[in-house]
Design a protein that fits this description.
Elements (H helix, E strand, L loop, with lengths): L40 E3 L2 E3 L20 H4 L16 H14 L25
Antiparallel strand pairs: 1-2
């Protein structure tokens, strides 16, 4: 069983000049992952536009559609890496874009992204 993991450099930083000859799959990603930002996150009575959710708040650690492809499709099954891997957020978005592209005229391409305005809390209407 130990031989199956021989040459595995997963989730690891490697030094400059690292010899990747015996590594199974080698993809380089520079920088941290990008996470989804909320348009109007309420915290302690104040509204924080463009804030990242904290642990325990809805939307914490959801990858942005602008994150690097090495992270967005870097899991063994081609899905996004991270805690929401099984939710397939980015995979569903990519599938929707691909399906929309099938019904476009020749020469046009589809584009999609998260519309975070839908995450904003609804206003409290008073009578």
């Amino acid at each position: 069983m130990a031989a199956a993991q021989s040459g595995c450099v997963r989730y690891s930083a490697v030094p400059t000049g690292f010899d990747a000859t015996h590594v199974h799959r080698f993809a380089v990603h520079e920088g941290p992952p990008r996470f989804l930002r909320w348009p109007c996150l309420e915290r302690a009575g104040s509204v924080l536009p463009g804030a990242l959710p904290r642990i325990g708040e809805p939307g914490f650690a959801v990858l942005s559609d602008r994150t690097a492809p090495e992270i967005a499709r870097g899991a063994e099954d081609g899905g996004e890496m991270g805690v929401y891997h099984d939710a397939w957020h980015l995979g569903r978005l990519a599938a929707g874009i691909a399906k929309a592209g099938l019904s476009l005229p020749a020469g046009q391409s589809a584009y999609g992204h998260y519309d975070t305005r839908l995450l904003a809390p609804l206003p409290d209407l008073q009578d």
